[in-house]
Amino acid sequence: MRKRSNPAPSPATPADDKALIQNLIGLGDFSARKSYYPELQGKIDELEQEKERYEWLFENALHGIFQAEVDSAINSANPAIATICGYESADTICSSIDDIGYQLFHRYEDYQRLIRILFEQGKQVGFETQFKTWDGSVVEVSMNVLLKSREPAIIEAFVQDITERKRAQDGLTRLNESLEQRVLDRTDELSSVNQHLRQEICERKEIELALNEAKQEAEQANASKDKYLAAASHDLLQPLNAARLLVSTLQERALANADHNLVDRIHVALLGAEELLTDLLDISKLDANAVSADYCDFPITGLLESLQTEFKPVADKAGLTLKVVSSNVVVRSDSRLLMRIIRNLLSNAIRYTEQGRILLGCRRLGNKLRISVFDTGPGIPDERQEEIFQEFQQLDNAQNCRDKGVGLGLAIVERIATMLKHPIHLRSQVGRGSCFAVDVPVGELNIEAGQQAKSVYLPSDINGLKVLVIDNEEAITHSMQMLLQEWGAEVATALDGDQALQRCQQQTPDIILADYHLANDVTGLDVLDRIEGQEKGVIPTIMITADRSDEVRQQFQVRGLQRLNKPVKPGKLRSLISHILSRQGTP
Question: Which domains does the chain have, with CATH numbers?
Fold first, then answer.
């Protein structure tokens, strides 16, 4: 704020203002011009430097720069735009192009579109197009363009060469297209593979259905075969059983030598037919998995001594020595199936041994018992030791005087051993003999087993024994009666249950021999129930049957009944009767 004591400045006059302006622009006196000249000269120098700098940038810029009139020539250009378009210098491009729309732009419609945008917006950034080069080729460019003025219409452009980027983009585009095509091709291939897999799955399903149908048909065929064989075996074994009993009766009688020879030949023929039929039934059931194992622990001594009783007469008749080395070891197996294995091995040994001896013995090997059958036969060549376990395979050196069989014995041995998981071993030397062995697991000893070890088939006199024979076949009852009478037994026969009850009322038998399958779907068990219902008590009974099924065998076991398979072997029948009498204490 100005002080009151100070005088106020006098107002400026027009003359003073004019003097001041003249001094500023250098029109005043020399002293005034001299004082402002250095400042003006500095500004002029700065402008010159700035101009030079912009000229240098214009000349050395990496991007192309040009100024041109719309639909006319290029007014100015830098070396970079000349290089981009393939011209020698900026002056050459300026002098060579009179109309940028037709001569610089590759597509005139791109130029027209750019001009419309510029007149609408005043500028355009990142406008991509193609320029023509000096040699007629094309270059890809990106432009930032400014409309400098409208009258006259002048544009200024900054140009960047994007050819490499476009090539890379095109390469990526082609790569993407290639990848897409490969994906499509792969998809088509996968679709084709999936279709093929679906077709294979459908075909496999059809094959599985066909296999299941075939399996069902095969199972039905096996079931039908088993039923047919069971029925046929019963029908075949009935007359065979009667013939065997009659022949055995004749063998018990005193006949002339010529008649004895005939009877022996008949016996051998029937024995061969019996073994063939039995082997066929057994192999059929083993192949159909119709045989199951009933494992238990039992001492091997009873089984070995039973086999000795059975085969000693056979070996003696063949002129061979049979020696059995027993053992007190308890084994775990199915006694019935294990006996079948050893029986077949002994039968083969006797069949193929001409002279010498047969040895049946045991040897403890850790937790297994090896049961071996040695013979002094001709031996088996190494190349045939696997072959002989196949069906219907036989060696050619069976003794002429003995039955050769049909070649199923060892096949049955191999199948039963496989089912029981008892390994079979064979050692043989041509000219010296063979050894067949089976390994059986060792079991645990118990009281029942110890008692069973004492139950040996002891011989017993059956003279005067009262026997009731029940069979619906009159030929069987007659044959059995003749055989038992030869042994000194008193025999009564019955064709059905009613006759059996009558015979028991007349005289209580000491033992009953009953056929399992009787007429009109009646079984021997049914008749036995009726006899026991008359308060006759429990009468020792042997069931005789051609049915070897596990179901029937289990029925007998539940009732505590002994069983004999048809055709009945007289030696087995007599041994079994003796065994039962020894346990019952009957004379």
Answer: 18-51 (no CATH), 61-161 (3.30.450.20), 228-290+457-587 (3.40.50.2300), 291-455 (3.30.565.10)
Token look-up 């003097």 returns 19
Please state, in angstroms and rounded to a whole number, the distance separating the CA atoms of residues 261 and 44.
158
For 172-212, the pLDDT digits (tens) are: 888 888 898 889 888 888 888 898 899 989 999 989 888 88
Q: How far apart are CA 580 and CA 43, in angstroms?
A: 148
Measure the CA–CA gap between 153 and 101, rounded to whole angstroms.
Answer: 14
Structure tokens at 382: 């190494």
Helix pair 409-420, 335-352: axis angle to 10 deg: 150
State which H helix or E strand residue 334 sits in. Answer: none
- What is the spatial distance between Cα 35 and Cα 296, in angstroms, rounded to a whole number? 139
State the CB neighbour count (10 A cutoff) for residue 209.
10
CB 476 within 8 A of CB 245: yes
Is pTM beyond 0.90? Reply is no
Residue 130: strand pairing partners:
140
Helix segments in 253-373, DSSP class H = 257-287, 300-317, 335-352
143: tokens are 């432009």
Task: Give the integer Cα–Cα distance in Å for 265 and 245.
Answer: 15
What interhelical angle do 163-252 and 257-287 show, nearest 10?
160
Q: How far is CA 44 from CA 38, 39, 119, 155, 478, in A?
A: 10, 9, 36, 29, 158
d(CA 277, CA 127): 104
- Give me the sign of the Cα torsion angle 171, 173, 174, 180: positive
The residues with which 374 forms a beta bridge, in sequence order, are: 359, 435
- Which residue ranges of the chain lie beneath pLDDT 50? 1-9, 20-21, 24-26, 397-402, 447-460, 586-587
Contacts with 423 (C-beta within 8 Å, 6 or more apart), sequence order: 417, 438, 439
Q: Which three-class secondary structure state does DSSP give residue 144?
A: strand
